[in-house]
Protein backbone atom coordinates (compact mmCIF):
# COMPACT_ATOMS: atom_id res chain seq x y z
CA UNK A 1 0.00 0.00 0.00
CA UNK A 2 3.09 2.10 0.05
CA UNK A 3 3.13 5.30 -1.81
CA UNK A 4 5.33 5.27 -4.86
CA UNK A 5 7.00 8.22 -6.44
CA UNK A 6 7.05 8.11 -10.21
CA UNK A 7 10.74 7.26 -10.05
CA UNK A 8 10.12 4.17 -7.94
CA UNK A 9 7.12 2.94 -9.81
CA UNK A 10 7.73 -0.41 -11.43
CA UNK A 11 10.80 -1.32 -9.42
CA UNK A 12 9.37 -1.72 -5.94
CA UNK A 13 8.21 -5.01 -4.47
CA UNK A 14 4.87 -5.29 -2.78
CA UNK A 15 5.76 -7.79 -0.10
CA UNK A 16 8.74 -7.02 2.03
CA UNK A 17 10.27 -9.36 4.55
CA UNK A 18 9.38 -8.28 8.04
CA UNK A 19 12.34 -6.56 9.66
CA UNK A 20 13.94 -9.02 12.04
CA UNK A 21 13.48 -6.77 15.05
CA UNK A 22 9.95 -5.69 14.21
CA UNK A 23 7.36 -7.12 16.59
CA UNK A 24 3.74 -6.53 17.36
CA UNK A 25 1.23 -7.60 19.95
CA UNK A 26 -2.49 -7.30 19.51
CA UNK A 27 -5.44 -7.12 21.86
CA UNK A 28 -9.10 -6.60 21.07
CA UNK A 29 -12.36 -5.81 22.84
CA UNK A 30 -16.03 -6.02 21.96
CA UNK A 31 -18.23 -3.57 23.85
CA UNK A 32 -15.32 -3.11 26.24
CA UNK A 33 -14.97 -6.85 27.02
CA UNK A 34 -11.65 -8.43 26.01
CA UNK A 35 -11.74 -10.84 23.06
CA UNK A 36 -9.57 -13.96 23.80
CA UNK A 37 -6.12 -13.81 22.16
CA UNK A 38 -6.90 -17.06 20.32
CA UNK A 39 -9.68 -15.27 18.47
CA UNK A 40 -7.52 -12.37 17.28
CA UNK A 41 -6.27 -13.27 13.83
CA UNK A 42 -4.15 -11.65 11.16
CA UNK A 43 -3.76 -12.96 7.67
CA UNK A 44 -1.31 -12.14 4.89
CA UNK A 45 -2.39 -9.08 2.99
CA UNK A 46 -3.24 -10.63 -0.34
CA UNK A 47 -5.80 -11.04 -3.04
CA UNK A 48 -7.55 -14.34 -3.73
CA UNK A 49 -9.45 -15.26 -0.55
CA UNK A 50 -13.18 -15.84 -0.25
CA UNK A 51 -15.34 -12.77 0.28
CA UNK A 52 -16.83 -11.98 3.71
CA UNK A 53 -20.19 -10.93 2.22
CA UNK A 54 -21.87 -7.70 1.27
CA UNK A 55 -23.09 -4.95 3.55
CA UNK A 56 -25.70 -2.26 3.42
CA UNK A 57 -25.01 0.73 1.15
CA UNK A 58 -23.68 3.81 2.93
CA UNK A 59 -25.45 7.11 3.22
CA UNK A 60 -23.35 10.23 3.28
CA UNK A 61 -23.92 12.08 6.51
CA UNK A 62 -23.31 15.55 5.20
CA UNK A 63 -23.67 17.51 2.04
CA UNK A 64 -20.57 18.98 0.52
CA UNK A 65 -19.66 22.50 1.44
CA UNK A 66 -17.89 24.73 -1.02
CA UNK A 67 -14.56 23.17 -1.70
CA UNK A 68 -11.51 25.13 -0.70
CA UNK A 69 -8.71 25.96 -3.09
CA UNK A 70 -5.84 23.87 -1.76
CA UNK A 71 -2.59 23.06 -3.51
CA UNK A 72 -3.39 20.19 -5.90
CA UNK A 73 -0.89 17.39 -6.56
CA UNK A 74 -1.27 14.70 -9.22
CA UNK A 75 -0.35 11.15 -8.22
CA UNK A 76 -0.50 7.64 -9.70
CA UNK A 77 -1.91 6.20 -6.49
CA UNK A 78 -2.72 8.76 -3.80
CA UNK A 79 -5.89 10.82 -3.41
CA UNK A 80 -6.46 12.87 -0.27
CA UNK A 81 -4.89 15.22 2.24
CA UNK A 82 -1.35 15.59 3.50
CA UNK A 83 -0.16 18.13 6.02
CA UNK A 84 3.50 18.35 6.98
CA UNK A 85 5.23 19.55 10.13
CA UNK A 86 8.93 20.50 10.53
CA UNK A 87 11.17 17.66 11.76
CA UNK A 88 11.76 19.68 14.93
CA UNK A 89 8.06 19.36 15.85
CA UNK A 90 7.10 15.72 15.38
CA UNK A 91 3.69 14.13 15.08
CA UNK A 92 2.79 12.29 18.30
CA UNK A 93 -0.72 11.18 17.51
CA UNK A 94 -3.08 11.03 14.54
CA UNK A 95 -6.71 10.02 14.14
CA UNK A 96 -9.75 10.11 11.88
CA UNK A 97 -13.19 8.64 11.32
CA UNK A 98 -14.33 7.43 7.93
CA UNK A 99 -17.04 5.39 6.33
CA UNK A 100 -15.90 2.37 4.36
CA UNK A 101 -17.29 2.84 0.84
CA UNK A 102 -19.41 0.68 -1.39
CA UNK A 103 -17.01 -0.44 -4.12
CA UNK A 104 -17.95 -1.57 -7.61
CA UNK A 105 -15.89 -2.88 -10.50
CA UNK A 106 -14.63 -0.09 -12.71
CA UNK A 107 -14.90 -0.63 -16.45
CA UNK A 108 -11.60 -0.32 -18.25
CA UNK A 109 -9.45 -1.10 -15.19
CA UNK A 110 -7.31 -4.22 -14.87
CA UNK A 111 -7.91 -6.87 -12.19
CA UNK A 112 -7.43 -7.18 -9.33
CA UNK A 113 -9.12 -3.89 -8.46
CA UNK A 114 -8.90 -2.31 -5.03
CA UNK A 115 -9.48 0.91 -3.09
CA UNK A 116 -7.83 1.55 0.29
CA UNK A 117 -8.77 4.32 2.74
CA UNK A 118 -6.24 4.96 5.46
CA UNK A 119 -4.68 7.28 7.99
CA UNK A 120 -1.03 7.31 8.77
CA UNK A 121 2.29 8.98 9.35
CA UNK A 122 4.87 9.82 6.63
CA UNK A 123 5.01 8.78 2.98
CA UNK A 124 5.00 12.20 1.36
CA UNK A 125 8.06 14.30 2.19
CA UNK A 126 9.49 11.39 4.23
CA UNK A 127 9.38 8.11 2.28
CA UNK A 128 11.82 5.73 3.98
CA UNK A 129 9.24 4.47 6.46
CA UNK A 130 5.47 4.77 6.66
CA UNK A 131 2.96 3.69 9.31
CA UNK A 132 -0.45 3.27 7.73
CA UNK A 133 -3.71 1.62 8.75
CA UNK A 134 -7.19 1.55 7.28
CA UNK A 135 -9.76 -0.36 5.31
CA UNK A 136 -9.65 -1.77 1.78
CA UNK A 137 -12.05 -3.27 -0.75
CA UNK A 138 -10.76 -5.77 -3.31
CA UNK A 139 -12.06 -7.54 -6.41
CA UNK A 140 -9.80 -10.38 -7.48
CA UNK A 141 -11.24 -10.67 -10.94
CA UNK A 142 -14.24 -9.76 -13.04
CA UNK A 143 -16.33 -12.60 -11.60
CA UNK A 144 -15.38 -12.27 -7.93
CA UNK A 145 -17.40 -10.27 -5.43
CA UNK A 146 -15.97 -7.55 -3.23
CA UNK A 147 -13.93 -8.32 -0.11
CA UNK A 148 -13.70 -5.64 2.56
CA UNK A 149 -10.98 -5.76 5.20
CA UNK A 150 -9.09 -3.72 7.74
CA UNK A 151 -5.33 -3.68 7.19
CA UNK A 152 -2.14 -2.06 8.42
CA UNK A 153 1.51 -1.78 7.44
CA UNK A 154 4.67 -0.38 8.94
CA UNK A 155 6.52 0.06 5.69
CA UNK A 156 8.97 -1.38 4.68
CA UNK A 157 7.71 -4.34 6.73
CA UNK A 158 4.89 -6.38 5.20
CA UNK A 159 1.24 -5.38 5.27
CA UNK A 160 -1.36 -7.40 7.21
CA UNK A 161 -5.08 -7.76 6.99
CA UNK A 162 -7.08 -8.22 10.15
CA UNK A 163 -9.14 -11.36 9.64
CA UNK A 164 -12.82 -10.52 9.06
CA UNK A 165 -13.64 -12.89 11.96
CA UNK A 166 -11.73 -10.51 14.24
CA UNK A 167 -12.80 -7.18 12.74
CA UNK A 168 -15.57 -7.39 10.14
CA UNK A 169 -15.70 -4.60 7.58
CA UNK A 170 -18.74 -3.86 5.47
CA UNK A 171 -19.69 -1.14 3.04
CA UNK A 172 -21.09 1.80 4.97
CA UNK A 173 -19.35 0.95 8.25
CA UNK A 174 -17.89 3.78 10.26
CA UNK A 175 -14.36 3.36 11.51
CA UNK A 176 -12.20 5.26 13.91
CA UNK A 177 -8.44 4.89 13.61
CA UNK A 178 -5.95 6.21 16.16
CA UNK A 179 -2.17 6.02 16.08
CA UNK A 180 -0.30 7.03 19.22
CA UNK A 181 3.48 7.14 18.76
CA UNK A 182 5.65 6.38 21.78
CA UNK A 183 8.89 6.86 19.78
CA UNK A 184 10.02 6.99 16.14
CA UNK A 185 10.02 3.17 16.11
CA UNK A 186 7.08 2.26 18.37
CA UNK A 187 3.42 3.11 18.71
CA UNK A 188 -0.09 1.94 19.46
CA UNK A 189 -2.65 1.60 16.64
CA UNK A 190 -6.33 1.28 17.58
CA UNK A 191 -8.98 0.30 15.03
CA UNK A 192 -12.52 0.77 16.28
CA UNK A 193 -15.64 -0.52 14.60
CA UNK A 194 -17.64 2.52 15.59
CA UNK A 195 -21.02 0.92 15.01
CA UNK A 196 -20.51 -2.29 16.98
CA UNK A 197 -17.94 -1.34 19.58
CA UNK A 198 -15.23 -3.71 18.36
CA UNK A 199 -11.73 -2.37 18.95
CA UNK A 200 -8.44 -3.96 17.88
CA UNK A 201 -5.30 -2.57 19.47
CA UNK A 202 -1.86 -3.18 17.99
CA UNK A 203 1.22 -2.54 20.09
CA UNK A 204 4.03 -2.09 17.58
CA UNK A 205 7.74 -1.77 18.27
CA UNK A 206 10.99 -1.98 16.35
CA UNK A 207 9.52 -0.45 13.21
CA UNK A 208 11.74 1.33 10.72
CA UNK A 209 12.24 4.85 12.14
CA UNK A 210 9.59 7.34 11.08
CA UNK A 211 10.31 11.00 10.51
CA UNK A 212 6.85 11.77 11.95
CA UNK A 213 6.53 14.79 9.71
CA UNK A 214 3.66 13.92 7.31
CA UNK A 215 0.08 13.53 8.54
CA UNK A 216 -1.78 11.55 5.90
CA UNK A 217 -5.49 10.89 5.24
CA UNK A 218 -5.81 9.23 1.85
CA UNK A 219 -7.67 6.96 -0.53
CA UNK A 220 -5.09 4.83 -2.30
CA UNK A 221 -4.88 2.75 -5.43
CA UNK A 222 -2.84 -0.06 -3.84
CA UNK A 223 0.08 -1.95 -5.27
CA UNK A 224 -0.32 -5.48 -6.51
CA UNK A 225 2.86 -7.39 -7.33
CA UNK A 226 5.24 -4.90 -8.86
CA UNK A 227 2.56 -2.65 -10.33
CA UNK A 228 -0.61 -0.91 -9.29
CA UNK A 229 -3.90 -2.77 -8.91
CA UNK A 230 -6.85 -1.59 -10.96
CA UNK A 231 -8.74 1.15 -9.14
CA UNK A 232 -12.33 0.15 -8.37
CA UNK A 233 -15.17 2.68 -8.30
CA UNK A 234 -16.30 3.76 -4.83
CA UNK A 235 -18.90 5.89 -3.12
CA UNK A 236 -17.70 9.19 -1.61
CA UNK A 237 -15.33 8.67 1.29
CA UNK A 238 -15.49 11.24 4.06
CA UNK A 239 -12.69 11.59 6.54
CA UNK A 240 -13.97 13.34 9.64
CA UNK A 241 -12.38 14.68 12.82
CA UNK A 242 -9.01 14.29 11.13
CA UNK A 243 -6.34 15.63 13.41
CA UNK A 244 -2.69 15.06 14.31
CA UNK A 245 -1.14 16.26 17.56
CA UNK A 246 2.45 17.43 17.55
CA UNK A 247 5.12 17.96 20.17
CA UNK A 248 4.05 21.58 20.40
CA UNK A 249 1.65 24.00 18.80
CA UNK A 250 -1.67 23.51 17.08
CA UNK A 251 -2.75 20.15 15.69
CA UNK A 252 -2.29 19.43 12.00
CA UNK A 253 -5.69 19.01 10.37
CA UNK A 254 -7.22 18.95 6.91
CA UNK A 255 -7.21 22.73 6.76
CA UNK A 256 -4.56 24.03 4.40
CA UNK A 257 -3.49 20.53 3.39
CA UNK A 258 -2.02 19.49 0.09
CA UNK A 259 -4.72 17.67 -1.91
CA UNK A 260 -3.60 14.67 -3.93
CA UNK A 261 -5.66 13.43 -6.86
CA UNK A 262 -5.41 10.52 -9.32
CA UNK A 263 -6.23 11.91 -12.75
CA UNK A 264 -9.68 10.78 -13.97
CA UNK A 265 -9.98 8.26 -11.10
CA UNK A 266 -10.10 10.11 -7.78
CA UNK A 267 -10.50 13.70 -6.66
CA UNK A 268 -10.26 15.03 -3.12
CA UNK A 269 -11.12 18.25 -1.42
CA UNK A 270 -10.80 20.01 1.88
CA UNK A 271 -14.34 20.40 3.16
CA UNK A 272 -13.70 21.94 6.57
CA UNK A 273 -10.86 22.18 9.09
CA UNK A 274 -11.10 18.48 9.93
CA UNK A 275 -13.17 17.02 7.08
CA UNK A 276 -11.99 15.80 3.68
CA UNK A 277 -13.95 14.06 0.95
CA UNK A 278 -12.60 11.85 -1.85
CA UNK A 279 -14.75 10.84 -4.78
CA UNK A 280 -14.83 9.47 -8.32
CA UNK A 281 -14.62 12.54 -10.58
C1 LIG B 1 -12.20 -15.20 -9.62
O1 LIG B 1 -12.19 -15.11 -8.20
C2 LIG B 1 -12.96 -16.12 -7.59
C3 LIG B 1 -13.01 -15.81 -6.11
O2 LIG B 1 -11.77 -15.44 -5.61
C4 LIG B 1 -12.34 -17.46 -7.90
O3 LIG B 1 -13.10 -18.48 -7.30
C5 LIG B 1 -12.30 -17.67 -9.39
O4 LIG B 1 -11.64 -18.87 -9.68
C6 LIG B 1 -11.60 -16.53 -10.07
N1 LIG B 1 -11.75 -16.67 -11.51
C7 LIG B 1 -10.73 -16.49 -12.33
C8 LIG B 1 -11.06 -16.63 -13.78
O5 LIG B 1 -9.61 -16.24 -11.95
C1 LIG C 1 -0.84 8.30 23.96
O1 LIG C 1 -0.25 7.38 24.86
C2 LIG C 1 0.26 8.03 26.04
C3 LIG C 1 0.92 6.95 26.87
O2 LIG C 1 1.87 6.26 26.16
C4 LIG C 1 -0.87 8.65 26.80
O3 LIG C 1 -0.37 9.33 27.92
C5 LIG C 1 -1.59 9.64 25.91
O4 LIG C 1 -2.74 10.12 26.58
C6 LIG C 1 -2.03 8.97 24.62
N1 LIG C 1 -2.58 9.98 23.75
C7 LIG C 1 -3.80 9.91 23.27
C8 LIG C 1 -4.24 11.07 22.46
O5 LIG C 1 -4.53 8.96 23.48
C1 LIG D 1 -18.84 -4.10 12.99
O1 LIG D 1 -19.11 -5.44 13.23
C2 LIG D 1 -20.35 -5.90 12.73
C3 LIG D 1 -20.49 -7.36 13.05
O2 LIG D 1 -20.34 -7.58 14.40
C4 LIG D 1 -20.45 -5.68 11.25
O3 LIG D 1 -21.72 -6.07 10.78
C5 LIG D 1 -20.18 -4.23 10.96
O4 LIG D 1 -20.21 -4.07 9.60
C6 LIG D 1 -18.82 -3.86 11.54
N1 LIG D 1 -18.39 -2.53 11.28
C7 LIG D 1 -18.93 -1.44 11.79
C8 LIG D 1 -18.21 -0.18 11.54
O5 LIG D 1 -19.95 -1.46 12.43
C1 LIG E 1 3.27 -2.01 24.52
O1 LIG E 1 4.37 -2.89 24.65
C2 LIG E 1 5.40 -2.37 25.47
C3 LIG E 1 6.58 -3.31 25.46
O2 LIG E 1 6.38 -4.44 24.72
C4 LIG E 1 4.86 -2.18 26.86
O3 LIG E 1 5.88 -1.63 27.68
C5 LIG E 1 3.69 -1.24 26.83
O4 LIG E 1 3.11 -1.12 28.11
C6 LIG E 1 2.65 -1.74 25.86
N1 LIG E 1 1.61 -0.70 25.76
C7 LIG E 1 0.33 -0.99 25.77
C8 LIG E 1 -0.62 0.17 25.67
O5 LIG E 1 -0.10 -2.12 25.86
Can you characterise this structure?
The chain is mainly beta and 281 residues long. It has a single domain (23-55, 65-279), classed as Sandwich (Jelly Rolls). It is built from no helices and 24 strands. The chain has strands spanning 23-30, 33-35, 42-44, 72-74, 78-84, 91-99, 103-104, 113-121, 130-139, 147-155, 159-162, 174-181, 187-193, 198-205, 214-220, 223-224, 227-228, 230-231, 233-234, 237-246, 252-253, 258-261, 267-270, 276-279. The strands form four sheets. Strands 1, 2, 6, 12, 13, 14, 20, 21, 23 and 24 form a ten-stranded antiparallel sheet that branches. Strands 3, 4, 5, 8, 9, 10, 11, 15, 18 and 22 form a ten-stranded mixed sheet that branches. Strands 7-19 form a two-stranded antiparallel sheet. It is globular. Residues 2-20 and 47-64 have low confidence and may be disordered. The chain binds 2-acetamido-2-deoxy-beta-D-glucopyranose (4 copies). One 2-acetamido-2-deoxy-beta-D-glucopyranose is lined by residues 55, 168, 170, 173-175, 193-196, 198. One 2-acetamido-2-deoxy-beta-D-glucopyranose binds at residues 93, 180, 182. It holds the Pfam family Peptidase_A4. The active site is at residue 220.
